[in-house]
Structures are given as structure tokens and as C-alpha cells.
Write a structure and sequence with these properties.
about 230 residues, alpha/beta, 6-stranded mixed sheet, 3-stranded antiparallel sheet
Length: about 230
């Protein structure tokens, strides 16, 4: 379903224009980081791509996928994931059952991903009593279990401690290594360097740069990006 083509994409809430005429082509393979300051429009852009919001203008085109197929091939993990009122295991199983898999198949797949993210020992615990870092790992497991072609991650380590952030980043790398395309928002420069292969830099709702990670940090093409890198 990739490449993902954005054509003059805009979004407004009332009289406030949040996304302003963004055009980009996102390919299979490289980990794509949507980077920019707070309030730049990163999360809104991701929600538009995922289908949670409808553009005010412009188009979102998924290669080879009709509108009804798109959501079945992608998943999204939010900054503050919502945990169902059930066990960690059943949180993962629930999504798999909605995808039409048998209970036994769901249980096996769910336990596999819980093992990979380090939560197998907590499978029977209520998801809502897990720590913030554990809940985010569970959210990643829940999405990964579905085998999406594309995984959107919206500030997945915001408000987590360094140890939990390290765990989440390792899981993201494992998901990428399994063949899932990663598209992630962050305002953390260090995290962008660790996890990114290419940068979409957004400021004030506009896409100012779409470039490989090394070039972005060595030779930013816009004054806004240069100032952001310097922390100004």
C-alpha cells in the first residue's frame, strides 16, 4: 500500500489552519520521522494519514489500496494509549478477534508478541494497573500483533523515563526489522537521530524539509530547521 502520496494536504479547525498545503511521497523501507516544535501540526498530520481526520483540502493516496482496505493494513499507537478493562493478554487478543482470527490463533499470536515486548509475565494482569511504560509496550504489542504494513506512532515515549524510553525504542526497531513501515512523530532530536532514516520537518503547519536524516542535521535547508536543531 506504499508509497503514500500527500497532495496539497490542508486541514483547518474552524478558522485556524493547522496543516497548510503539504505534499510528500513516503516510500516503503526507511523509518520516517515527522519532526517539529510543539504545535507544528505533527499529530494532526499523522491523524490525517491514518484516517482519523478528514482533510479540508488536498488528497491522501495509498498505492494499490481502496478506501475500504487502508485501515486493515495500518495501525496507530498514541501518546496515551487507551487500555481495555481486561487483562494484558486479552487486550491483544481483542484486536486479533476483530480481524477474524480464531481464539486459539489469537492466543498464540498474542503470547508471542507479549514475550517479545517483555510482558509475558504480566499477561494475566489487568492492563490498567500496568505502569505507563508497560502500557505503552502493550499498546505496541497490540498493534504489532495485527501485522500492519504501516505503523503510525504519535510521540510514543512522551512522559516516559529514560529506561522505559529505551525499551520502547528497542521494540520500535524490532517492529521495523520485521518489515513494518514506521512513521513516527517526535520533537526529540536525540530520538530522531536514533530511530530515523528520513525526516519530514514541519513548522507552523508547513512541510519545510523532507530529507535523509544525516543531511537534515548536517545541512538543514531552512532557517526554521536550523534554529530548531540549535534549540532556538
Amino acid at each position: 500500500m506504499l508509497p503514500l502520496q500527500l497532495e496539497q494536504l490542508s486541514f483547518a479547525a474552524g478558522d485556524t489552519e493547522i496543516i497548510r498545503g503539504i505534499s510528500a511521497r513516503i516510500e516503503t523501507g526507511p523509518r520516517t520521522i515527522i519532526l517539529g516544535p510543539n504545535g507544528a501540526g505533527k499529530s494532526v498530520l499523522m491523524r490525517l494519514c491514518h484516517g482519523l481526520l478528514t482533510p479540508t483540502a488536498g488528497r491522501i493516496i495509498w498505492h494499490g489500496a481502496g478506501n475500504g482496505d487502508v485501515r486493515r493494513h495500518q495501525a496507530m499507537v498514541f501518546q496515551r494509549p487507551v487500555m481495555l478493562r481486561r487483562s494484558a493478554l486479552d487486550n491483544v487478543i481483542y484486536g486479533l478477534q476483530l480481524a477474524g482470527k480464531s481464539r486459539r490463533e489469537c492466543e498464540l499470536r498474542a503470547m508471542d508478541v507479549l514475550e517479545v515486548v517483555g510482558l509475558a509475565q504480566h499477561a494475566a494482569r489487568p492492563a490498567r494497573v500496568l505502569s505507563g511504560g508497560e502500557q505503552q509496550r502493550l499498546a505496541l504489542a497490540r498493534a504489532w500483533a495485527l501485522g500492519p504494513d504501516v505503523l503510525f506512532l504519535d510521540e510514543p515515549t512522551a512522559n516516559l523515563d529514560p529506561a522505559s524510553t529505551h525499551d520502547i525504542e528497542n521494540i520500535i526497531n524490532a517492529i521495523h526489522a520485521s518489515g513494518t513501515k514506521i512513521i513516527m512523530t517526535t520533537h526529540n532530536l536525540g530520538q530522531a537521530r536514533r530511530l530515523g532514516d528520513e525526516i519530514l520537518f514541519i513548522s507552523n503547519g508547513r512541510l519545510l524539509e523532507h530529507t535523509p536524516i544525516d543531511r537534515f542535521f548536517k545541512e538543514p535547508a531552512s532557517p526554521e530547521a536550523a534554529a530548531f536543531i540549535k534549540g532556538e
